[in-house]
Amino acid sequence: MIIGRLTGEVAALGLxxxxxxxxxxxxxxxxxxxxLSRVHAGEKITVHVxxxxxxxxxxxxxxGTDEERAWFVRLQDVHGVAGKAAMAILDALTPAxxxxxxALGDSNVLTRAKGVGKKLAERIVxxxxxxxxxMGRFGKFEAASAAGMASAPxxxxxxxxxxxxxxxxxxxxxxxxxxxxxASVAKDAGDDVGGLIKSALRELAQ
Length: 206
Description:
The protein is an alpha+beta fold. The chain has eight helices and seven strands.
């Protein structure tokens, strides 16, 4: 049985996990501080779950958004990155910050994560550079609050940045060039897709 999402009540919080009561059944989800710092015992919560099954155990990893869950999976495509390191990276960086670091080749940003050294950070950036952002389980991400119910699915990507990158790729630019250009202009262009595309095109024309 693969669990993909849980909605219930926060029964208890630990240093690295949350106990979610779903109709009287308690599920222990390993979680990072990004989620744990935003929830409290007794409140309703929706947790996006990545289920990992080994010969000896079944482990649930819980995230506030499906996008974080997807990046958790993508990071472990890199040799040497296990669940603990992937969780630490997502504690230190948002998906948008992680995508920008990869696009700009800025491995130093990843060393902010606990237990991630320079060599591992460089390997992550090197192996993920030029790859499209991860997608949701069914091609779309579910937008959900860590302490609320899931809402309607949204387009798969890292928000407006992902949409802008996709548009540039459709115009004929490579994934890596498009991602690098969008990351370079994102701070000034904001989250408007049209503005991101225009600014990125100017960046690519230089």
